[in-house]
Amino acid sequence: MATLLPPPKRQKSNYAKSLEKPSAPEPEVPIPSIVVQFKSSEDGSNLGPAINLPADTGRDALQMLVNKLRGETEDPLPYAFHLVPKVPTTSTSTQSARVQINNSIQLDALKTPGTTFSPEDVFELWCEPQAVFRVRSVGRCSATLSGHSSPILCCAHSPTGKYAATGSGDATARIWDMDTETPKWTLTGHKGWVLCVEWDSREKILATGGHDGQVRLWTPSTGQAYGQPLFGHTKWITSLAFEPLHLVKSNSSSPRLASASKDGTVRIWNTSTRTIEFVLTGHAASVNVVRWGGENVIYTGSSDRTVKVWSGVDGKLIRTLNEHAHWVNTMALSTDFVLRTGPYDHTGKVPKDDEEAKTLALERYQNVISTQPETLITGSDDHTLFLWPDQASSSFSTSATPKKPLARLTGHQKQVNHVAFSPDGRMIASAGFDNAVKIWEGRTGKFIASLRGHVAAVYRVAWSADSRMLVSASKDTTLKLWNLKTYKIRIDLPGHTDEVYCVDFVADKVVSGGRDKTVKIWRN
Amino acid sequence: MVRITMPQNEYMEEHRKRHGRRMDYEEKKRKRTAREAHKASADAQKIFGHKAKLHHAKRHAEKVQMKKTLKAHDERNVKQKDDGAVKEGALPTYLLDREGQKDAKALSTAVKDRRKDRAAKYSVPLPKVRGIAEEEMFKVIKTGKHKGKSWKRMVNKATFVGEGFTRKPVKLERFIRPMGLRMTKANVTHPELKTTFQLPILGVKKNPQSPLYTSLGVLTKGTILEVNVSELGMVTTGGKVVWSKYAQITNNPENDGCINSVLLV
């Protein structure tokens, strides 16, 4: 006869609780007054003098202050604030290198345990302007589109976000209409798996590269092939890159295309005449990734551990960067997003003709360049990434020699699979086979935070257009949307039944495809 | 004195060129080749001693080869799939050259599976079976001119021999598996669906009585078989078709004349 525990006490209902008198309020703790120095994160300069503020000033009030100090009261910009703790965090490795201010300095810095702030310091508040528009958070899978009979290997959103193109192992590429979430065209013709797909920035040409070594051009409006396939490569195509719109010469209407292949060469094609302009040879092994920079410079990363910088005018080698210790898998430019979307931005304005499109694209490009020169980041199998200074010849006035990297980003425990700059160039996200996504500062390469949550290798990452959201696709069949204020998972997007190989984020929709042969569209 | 068996010069060919052959050469040749089969058979039955051993070994090898070529001829008539289709196993560019890399997890599970295999720890529907005595399993066959030798055994239970099976030379066969007791199909019951299918047997995985019976392919109650389940159309999560699974025998096939088994899912 064991003693019985008394039955649990009946809990009071919410109504009963509300009838009670409210308990006496806690004694008021006087809110300290702190000295705040606003610093611009672009160049580290002080925005105005140090100001005496109550510690519980909200984020909106801080934003208003910064806008006033900068004199931008007519066109207020949203800002993100963060503090950098002075004492290096050697004891606790979980604390990130920066403390984001989401509510107020009192709540985020003084009250949270584990931080080393006291009300007597001068708080150096770093301000980062954020995009004026806001992309809606993605929450649900609005459509699952089947049609491919083989795993989907690559996907790309068109610059306006109206269409998405996917390439698959069944040798076809399909174009899907994003507004109605239905299939539009099926592009057949390749003899092997379709490995890469790229849109040009005016949405007039779609280029696909295959396992058979062919590059094929298509017109997305009619779904027909745009001329004969481009032969020349002897092995499969690893990467495609279109020339930026503002560099296209006026006499030729369509941008040139660079295709990188496992045979170690990169071929530059003239898309209107479908001939080879020049071939970039020099790599000793497979060229894994190619990017066309905004200063008419072509970057190529290869399995021979080097990154080569070529001139886009005549194809001459400018310089070779060999600091990596293993294959260079992936590469990203800070101007990637703006070059890919060309003249289209969040206002939805459609340029009238090619000339206007070019001027718009040039304007957008120069806006991004003015704050930060075009930096390159390369990720490799040696578990590290390198941040390289501007390689174009126009900026040799800087003290750092272009051959020496700005920073070496270590921390991944396995190979780095994908790296992506945020559209405003302020942050870098890298995905590795060690199940982690790491966020780094875009300007200096300093480590910000590690996003853990995936249980298998992370294959791809994609930023939203306002740089506030990050989505990652992984081998564990899930996509995860990350909260960049707390560096934790915001929304988990399960639904795929097999590994997710590719993801893309443009406008307010995420499109993903994987080994389960379905394309999923996620939206608000 | 060493015997020389081959002609030392071309005198035989010269004679044929000068004088031709006998009138009935073609007929004699035809009749001689017709008699070859009978002569070979009579020789094989009558020879003895060292000559016999050599002959039987050579004949066994020939028989095995002949069976293989016959099988190949049969497959020739079956139509093959067109090879213009794309290869399977599509991978994105960043996974293309990474075939050789195995995850640590895959390796450790492979090692664990191998350890389990060796320990032979499986959970099966019939964990214990009745022990079968050798007298019940084998019948002693007496051979020899005076039926004095009794080293041959005939298996009394149902057996499975496999598709390319060729008997050992009869003189050297210790265990005889009679053709009447050889079975190729099993009635396999799916434990959850409760339906029964007749599926071809691929092989005998383990006979709980003794490893000797496993190697002989004896089918008794409790034996684990491998059956061809492609007919059921099961697919793994990765999209691959499952075509073989294990099943355990639940009846005594030598009494019933058929094999009833349950699928191990």
From TrEMBL, chain A:
InterPro entries linked to this entry: NLE, Quinoprotein_ADH-like_sf, WD40/YVTN_repeat-like_dom_sf, WD40_PAC1, WD40_repeat_CS, WD40_rpt
Boundaries of every NLE domain copy: 34-82
Listed CDD domains: WD40
Listed GO CC annotations: nucleolus
WD repeat segments: 145-186, 187-228, 230-279, 280-320, 409-450, 451-486, 493-524
Region (Disordered): 1-30
Keyword Manganese (UniProt): no
Keywords: Nucleus, Repeat, WD repeat
Protein name per Swiss-Prot or TrEMBL: Ribosome assembly protein 4
Source organism of this protein record: Kwoniella mangroviensis CBS 10435
From TrEMBL, chain B:
Alphabetical list of InterPro entries matching this protein: NSA2_fam, Ribosomal_Se8/biogenesis_NSA2
UniProt-recorded name of the protein: Ribosome biogenesis protein NSA2 homolog
Key words of the record: Nucleus, Ribonucleoprotein, Ribosome biogenesis, rRNA processing
Localization per record: Nucleus, Nucleolus
Organism: Kwoniella mangroviensis CBS 10435
Region (Disordered): 1-47
GO BP, sorted A to Z: ribosomal large subunit biogenesis; rRNA processing
Main function: Involved in the biogenesis of the 60S ribosomal subunit. May play a part in the quality control of pre-60S particles.
Subunit organization: Component of the pre-66S ribosomal particle.
Pfam families: Ribosomal_S8e
